[in-house]
Amino acid sequence: MKAFVMEGVGETGITEKTRPEPGPADAILKPTKGLICTSDCHTVHGAIGDREDLTLGHEIVGVVDEVGESVTDFDAGDRVAVGAITPDWHSKAAQDGHPSQSNQALGGWKFANVKDGTFAEYAHVNDADGNLAHIPDDVSDHEAAYTADMMSTGFAAAENADVPVGGRVVVFAQGPVGLMATKGAALQGAGEIIAVETVDARQELAVEYGADHVVDFQEGDPVEQIMELTDGEGVDAAIEALGTDRTLQDCIKVVKPGGTVSNVGYHGDGEFRHIPREEWGVGMAEIDIVTDLCPGGRLRIERLLRLLETGRVDPTHMTTHEFDFTEIEEAFEMMDEKANGIIKPLIHFD
Amino acid sequence: MKAFVMEGVGETGITEKTRPEPGPADAILKPTKGLICTSDCHTVHGAIGDREDLTLGHEIVGVVDEVGESVTDFDAGDRVAVGAITPDWHSKAAQDGHPSQSNQALGGWKFANVKDGTFAEYAHVNDADGNLAHIPDDVSDHEAAYTADMMSTGFAAAENADVPVGGRVVVFAQGPVGLMATKGAALQGAGEIIAVETVDARQELAVEYGADHVVDFQEGDPVEQIMELTDGEGVDAAIEALGTDRTLQDCIKVVKPGGTVSNVGYHGDGEFRHIPREEWGVGMAEIDIVTDLCPGGRLRIERLLRLLETGRVDPTHMTTHEFDFTEIEEAFEMMDEKANGIIKPLIHFD
Amino acid sequence: MKAFVMEGVGETGITEKTRPEPGPADAILKPTKGLICTSDCHTVHGAIGDREDLTLGHEIVGVVDEVGESVTDFDAGDRVAVGAITPDWHSKAAQDGHPSQSNQALGGWKFANVKDGTFAEYAHVNDADGNLAHIPDDVSDHEAAYTADMMSTGFAAAENADVPVGGRVVVFAQGPVGLMATKGAALQGAGEIIAVETVDARQELAVEYGADHVVDFQEGDPVEQIMELTDGEGVDAAIEALGTDRTLQDCIKVVKPGGTVSNVGYHGDGEFRHIPREEWGVGMAEIDIVTDLCPGGRLRIERLLRLLETGRVDPTHMTTHEFDFTEIEEAFEMMDEKANGIIKPLIHFD
Amino acid sequence: MKAFVMEGVGETGITEKTRPEPGPADAILKPTKGLICTSDCHTVHGAIGDREDLTLGHEIVGVVDEVGESVTDFDAGDRVAVGAITPDWHSKAAQDGHPSQSNQALGGWKFANVKDGTFAEYAHVNDADGNLAHIPDDVSDHEAAYTADMMSTGFAAAENADVPVGGRVVVFAQGPVGLMATKGAALQGAGEIIAVETVDARQELAVEYGADHVVDFQEGDPVEQIMELTDGEGVDAAIEALGTDRTLQDCIKVVKPGGTVSNVGYHGDGEFRHIPREEWGVGMAEIDIVTDLCPGGRLRIERLLRLLETGRVDPTHMTTHEFDFTEIEEAFEMMDEKANGIIKPLIHFD
């Protein structure tokens, strides 16, 4: 079968691989639609170390091609979604409420990390009954592909932010995760949502997904702008959806005493992140800093699919480009360079 | 000044009273708009015992007429909202996170209970700095009046229901509190909302406020209908917004193991409420039954006003009738009899 | 192999059975020590329906005899404990934080319910990596056997009770679960623990496990006694560890507004449990009623074993009698009749 | 009256002041016993800026000398404790569950910060009904003085750490707050407590208050020692009770994915605190960093007093020295220099 792989650091290509086989609890999917994630780009640039011919990709939906003997709830031919994170559900971390950390830090992240990813003619899913979800008839494959990571991660940012009904939330960066965090804040009952972004098209989407104000960091210090918008009070919660030291610091600076900083940004470089001591209330202002890795699993994905089924959100407005699987290298390069105003490229496998 | 009072059990009238005086921390308001609540009717029928010339009403907004000497954040002339519940914020219950229970069960409920209510030319508010909130310029008095009880109680029902993002919620009864619970469930990110109601106009409002399905209990057992809608799984959360034994039982019957029953119904009669033992999982199915009394206080009301300011909800669609203060007895009778399709009558004091 | 079985409603006996075989993820244990639970008695009396030659028992520790091919963390010869509840960890309920409810209400309860229990020469455990725990060298089999149900259930009662540090807790009934709930309340930082019990030996153990007061319900209404002990304030949390309508009602009556009723009692009969409407604050006093089924799983059992290893609790003081496996019928009858001051009988399989 | 004051940065002395007068809701206390806190030393060294003749001290108990006209629950002659933090209970932060942050960051901290402290013949307490607590007969003034800050702060560290029953906790530094955090971890049901400390007497007290292991940071990297003690798993929760960059970093390094870092250390210098990026799981390991300022208020203090009344803790073992009020400058200097093995000096005002 054909697979889009990281051949080594900085190198990608389409190669021929053997179709994977399912273990007793596993499934093999035939992808139909996929989305490229910025973290695929990070991986190719060496963020998680070198890999040889590792299949890329973790955001797809597809059709079940084969299931292992102990799988009970899915059969060949079923139309399914699967999370980017596929936890080991019996691990101690999962029993502790942290399935994304199963067995080790970020241990639920298997696709294109510790095993082949999903950008191939066939993809292997561990624990099919625990990690697949049937796609409702009224939900398109295109929509459903957004549940794997963008919706799950973005919404989690807002869920962890402990937003009071009617509270104020700021979301730093309006890439696809940030946009879904903005939507997530709306779905948590935020009364006022401030999006920080400078790119026009992303600003517009932020408003569509629920932002009441857009702060352009090119037009002045975002901290000052946010404090002004909130009459000096600061926000109840700040969401970091970029992964830089600067934005994390800004989150701490704009949160009021007793508020929450919710990080979903991938912090890919540097030895440290910096907590500004005074704005942190010298360690006593009751500002929590919480983090998450994209929640996965059947229940999570089913609930996200339900939000698509009842029309609570349309994530497809983030799809700026479409490609056939044969053109995936071109899509990848465009995503890597954030060229042509790309936000999210859809890949057709079918 | 004129006041609309409960003269005794079953008797109401407009009478002349002395204008109240503020204590050091208090304020006197001049109401501009008010709403009649079904619980005013319960009170007149003797639900909380006999009262003599007790001024009725707990849902108003108005203008500050006078403040006590230690009030710092409000002045005469300010346009303000006030919650139906005005807690003693330094009470031990408030310190414990239960301000509505200050000093005793339901102790934050003062208006038209342990002191005169708000349906008068002037109304007394304890702890002005803690219990008043400025109404933003963009929010009308009519809208703001809904924060006092309907929005606060209805939304609390959903907040307490511990709704997972994308989860399923059922709301029993679509009176004004139930309608706001439906809206509240949407604001908590529910993926599927089922409203139980038989009156056409209320069914329509339920859909407007976010219901995906309406179950008419006149067309069959609502429990069966809900189980069918959820493929036999049951719901993540059930909200009781009526106050009857039957609906509370039905809530327990439709919640899945691990789910939550959130009660905001006022249970006004009978010695007991009944938990159906088997559906409750013989006491081991991890179904929580939680309750609340309308949250009050400045912070709560400010946050609810913010939701009005940013257009997240328009509660005025529940206003079916309007009256001048001089006509309040007529409004009260209509509310008492639920005549003419009344949902919520607005009273003009100005 | 020999097994102690329920032959039918009201009938028990020791019979010969085929040794179970492990599935790929399972293990077969050879029990060394076991404890008889009152719920075994309920089962024999038909509480969960008729069964034919069902092996009884769910509280044991033992040695691993064989593991399935996909088990990675346990081997033959390992000394292990196992919870009474052995969840399906990838079920949707487990993903939702309710593993004891996997697949259906109480679905994690498999031993002596939907499959053979543990009172046999060999016992089958589903998902060995998820449900077994190694016993530390310093912990005896006798001690470890208490983690399966008594410690897990009793402590859960206190964990769910949301006890504030220094708060007041009452525990109704001081059977082995109630005694561990008393100890659990102490481990949650309760400032004052009131145990309700009439049997001398149990009263003494209650004090040993942390009770500051013992209320004897034979010497007057326990509600009155508790209200007097708390200067009329009531308690922050009430734990129901018996399973009767009366004690559940009493819990609601003694909890203060904003408090919690935590049920772990098995409510085995009657169509309803009754909530006293007025003491429940007419549905608005913010009294939560929560329930649980004994938490299981490797992480839970490891943590309970750690409490034994560091000497935080010695549950063996509850062991009033000891029997060889060959004498188990006698032990069972004594437990069924609560004869000879029995609290908990230890069974030696080795 | 005589008062022990900070005359300016680095300067202290006993001076004559006018006895304070109570506002309507306030009380004047006559201190009987007090404790000097390291933060008094920080203050004198300029940590919160310059002050002129500011009375020092925030840990005392005493007798009510006078109350304002609206105080209902306390009278002259009552023996009372008062928290170091005396919140404005009607402030928005208090309504939001963060009373210590009332009106501004750390705004509940009034004594020896924004008004005179307690080391004087008379001390002023705002909101007497909300901030005083009666001392039970069985509790000595000496014991009760520890509720004001040491017990409240130390226990809060453990409460915020979200310790699972049987979980592992490490507490960095065993000064009086750290020692109470160790005790607090035991009161939260920790299964294994590791104390980090190098001073012998503090190590011994740590064991008395519940530590199972003591790690001496002079004998090797504490992170390595802790990882070895936990078989490489790390701890469920790490408590920072010192206020240095190094210990905060170490907390993050020893917490396992999904765990909690709970800070109560006062971070008094430096522009930043540093989060080690990799051990923080690149922002995705679900490690929460939470902080607190000593909880105050009547309910809190009453609950802490109850723990003393029932003998759950004896904090007086931390008292290494005793002085009369006339000798307070000597006590202060000894505390400032941590001379003579001082842990906590008790001041007799009576």
From TrEMBL, chains A, B, C, D:
GO molecular function, one term: oxidoreductase activity, acting on the CH-OH group of donors, NAD or NADP as acceptor
Record-level GO BP terms: small molecule metabolic process
Cofactor dependency: Zn(2+)
Gene3D superfamilies xref list: Medium-chain alcohol dehydrogenases, catalytic domain, NAD(P)-binding Rossmann-like Domain
Short name of any one Pfam family annotated for the protein: ADH_N
Domain Enoyl reductase (ER): 13-343
PROSITE patterns recorded: ADH_ZINC
UniProt keyword terms in alphabetical order: Metal-binding, Oxidoreductase, Zinc
Family that this chain belongs to: Belongs to the zinc-containing alcohol dehydrogenase family.
Name the UniProt record assigns to this protein: NAD(P)-dependent alcohol dehydrogenase
Protein's organism: Natrarchaeobius chitinivorans
Phylogenetic placement of the source organism: Archaea, Methanobacteriati, Methanobacteriota, Stenosarchaea group, Halobacteria
